[in-house]
Amino acid sequence: MVRASSSSNWLPAINAYYLGVPFPIEKAHIRNITAFNDNGNGGVDTKEKSKEMVKNCHYKERNHKDQSLFSAHKRLVALFVDSKSLSVDLKATILLFITSSFHHCCPSLHQFHMAPAQLLLVFLTIVLRFVSAQQNDGSVSVGASLTATSNLKPWLSSSGEFAFGFQQVKGTDNFLLSIWYDKIPDKTIIWYPEEGRMVPTGSKVELLRESGLVLTDPQGTEVWRSGSISGVASGFMNDTGNFVVFGGNSRKLWGSYDFPANTLLPTQVMERGGGMNSTISDANFSGGRFQLRLLPDGNLVLNTRDTLSGNTYDAYYISGTYDDSNSTNSGKQVIFDATGYMYILRRNGQRFDLTPRGSLPSGDYYHRATLDSDGVFRQYYFPKNPTSNTTWKVIWFVPDNICVDINDDSNTGACGFNNVCSFDGNQPNCECPQGFSLLDPNNPSGDCKPHFTPTCDEVGSNNGEDMFDFIELDNTDWPFSDYVHMNPSNENTCKSSCLEDCFCAVAIYRDTQCWKKKLPLSNGRKVASANVKAFIKYRIGDQPLKNPLGLPGKNKDRRTLIVVGSVLLGTSVFVIFVLTGVICVGFFVIYKKKPINTYSIRKAVETNLPSFTYQELVEATDGFKDELGKGGFGIVYKGVIGKKIVAVKKLNTVVHDSDKEFKTEVDTIAKTHHKNLVQLLGYCDEGDQRLLVYEYMSNGTLAMFLFGDSRPTWRQRSHIAVGIAKGLAYLHEECSTQIIHCDIKPQNILLDDYFNAKISDFGMAKLLMLNQSHTNTGIRGTKGYLAPEWFRNTPVTVKVDVYSFGVLLLEIISCRKSLVFESDDEGMVVLTDLAWDCYQEGRLEAFVENDMEALNDHKKLATFVMVGLWCVQENSSLRPTMRKVNQMLEGGIEVDF
Fold this sequence. Notes:
Blueprint: H1 11-19, H2 27-33, H3 35-38, H4 44-58, H5 66-82, H6 88-105, H7 116-135, E1 139-141, E2 145-147, E3 155-156, E4 162-168, E5 175-181, E6 189-191, E7 204-208, E8 212-216, E9 222-225, E10 234-237, E11 243-246, E12 252-255, E13 263-264, E14 268-271, E15 275-281, E16 284-294, E17 300-305, E18 312-318, E19 331-336, E20 342-346, E21 351-353, E22 365-371, E23 377-383, E24 393-398, H8 402-405, E25 420-424, E26 427-431, E27 436-438, E28 448-450, E29 468-474, E30 476-477, E31 482-486, H9 491-499, E32 506-510, E33 513-517, E34 525-526, E35 532-539, H10 558-593, H11 614-620, E36 627-631, E37 634-641, E38 644-651, H12 658-669, E39 680-686, E40 689-695, H13 702-706, H14 714-734, E41 738-740, E42 749-751, E43 757-759, E44 766-768, H15 799-814, H16 831-840, H17 844-847, H18 852-856, H19 858-871, H20 882-889
Antiparallel strand pairs: 1-10, 2-7, 3-4, 4-5, 5-6, 7-8, 8-9, 10-11, 11-12, 13-22, 14-19, 15-16, 16-17, 17-18, 19-20, 20-21, 22-23, 23-24, 25-26, 27-28, 29-35, 30-34, 31-33, 32-33, 32-35, 36-37, 37-38, 38-40, 39-40, 41-44, 42-43
Helix pairs in contact: 1-6, 4-5, 5-6, 6-7, 14-15, 14-20, 15-19, 16-19
Domain Bulb-type lectin: 137-258
Transmembrane segments: 561-591
Catalytic activity: L-threonyl-[protein] + ATP = O-phospho-L-threonyl-[protein] + ADP + H(+); L-seryl-[protein] + ATP = O-phospho-L-seryl-[protein] + ADP + H(+)
């Protein structure tokens, strides 16, 4: 852009043009017209050519023909209009300047009898034409921005085939910054920033001179940026699908091709050491379990990984392009050329084919190679002139059968724990076996949880077939997880042995052999052999129903239900009408005589959750006998509804505002859906009785887990910490109504069957609309976890949760409580002080009490401690957001030590 200080120098030229008065151009104006080059918006050649063009027009002898001057002007106009590094505003200004000067240096123009107004009309027509062309040539000016809305107009490539902007994620209100095929009906996404973080409506991406591309949320918090770059001159969305950021002299600073998400495109190259991750699912673009890498040794591999730590497992596809006897025969690059042909280029120049040569001409088809969420690497094509209902077709894929090609007992396999993989054509399918359901309903290839209780529990030893039975699955196997192998055996012996063994969850029988296995089960798969059987053991009375609440009637024979229902329907219509009339008259008589008050008539809770009568919950909890825990607003009891174990929270009726707390909790939790939040299953709102029904968490509270007799593993603790951070980030930033928890502590974190953290107790949550930043409330929370602002009569924001999480994170790291009053050492009383001292003195081994697993993972340990200390800063504005915390804990943002 031309410097702001020189803008006034253009006014005489503009005024002269509007007035039709000749205006001689001075050398100062020549300097101004080329000033954009000094700011990195053009090359030396462009600067010299522009000066020469102007000199040709204004400083040559007057005996030059007007036609030659006109041609010089045309060349000058074309030079600036064709430039891809100039902004629209700068082009328009330069065109106005050139046109004004042309009016002076071409006096014969008047022979066309064109008045100034006519000249202006012609000029504006030209400018509008060029501005329109500029908007579609792929160029993006410094300062340009896009805001995430449903009617967003993206930055398009010149052909319109690719678009850069925000795309709304199906089934959510969130958006993904991405690049996509814009001429394909489903707008197929081919790039997004690492880890695929979704952002809410109102988020913005901007091209900044000193930062490059920067993505911020509606509150202005930075979510992502395109590396550490500066001196940005422009951006360009080109027709290969690569968005490039340029510096001065058209020097490339950053390109999306260099950071592939889960897709490669024609003309894209992957170097040694490069790679990309799958997504978790089609609707969740976070980094998934599968990874494609070109290793430093030259092999192209597919492998699974631990999404928490980033650790990789054994490869399930290897290209074989590593030659230890001849390094020049090893792979150097993965090349996806413009014709749609993909191969590995060896260091000696030879090629290792990945896709068939000459598969389809790229001029007629779009191509992409994607590592899909199921772990299969596929190359697709799509016709550029499609008919109706055209979809992407697969040319090639690896591995041949991912269900059996993954054989690593250190991870879950193609599907999650307890899940079963079957391969149909080129598509693996994951399905929970009977008696199990998905831990995350939005991730069909994820872990499956059992609907029945573990076989070894507080009830004591089992009595074999009197207490247990089997669900039998044909042609199903989990090849790992066994702890006993019996050979020879027969089917009855195999089953009996499992029934009498409280550790046995599943028995596999095949060819006179029996394998007994514990949960969780890994690498589940359907097998072709017809003589393989899996026997899943469940406690009689715990066999799950399809209805999560176990409502009666779901297990009945369908035809019987239809017959009985038809008879009842035919005989009950008249009765319903009569009863309805009687009830209406009865209510009218009763309430006409009785004053209306807030205790006799209560507003119905606006939710679609099932409601229960108080008596139903009394029976479900056996008279509220089995107490699980107690909080400030109620007691939680264990119960059974249908055949499903649940947790029933009974709110204290003596608390003045418990009714308000009840309404808050039901209305907010019913609208939240996240794998790290406890699921609300139902409620009771009867008279003065307020009860909530939750899913039951078999492993209790985090407090019991952390501060018990044995120390949990470092991997378990770090996994729990990240889960809590994700849950809080969801409450703060991803709900339609912002939620402050106000009482984050280990007692309010529950653990499911697989020790996944779930945040509970929203009874003390306060809601914030998205256009608010704070709320006023009385002090809430627990000593040791309270942020300083609770005691200062200052506004309470989501940063109080960040503070509490910081304390909790330090507890998780050290397995110590936040306050230990009985300690004789004064420095050990407050955990945050101990953490700071240990960190400052470089004694992390003292903080974790020589936990070797944690100390061997020193970088993560130091990161976690640093993040915890950052969260507990006294000044709330200095604390990070929970989104930022999550990014640091997962390694998405580097933490400097």
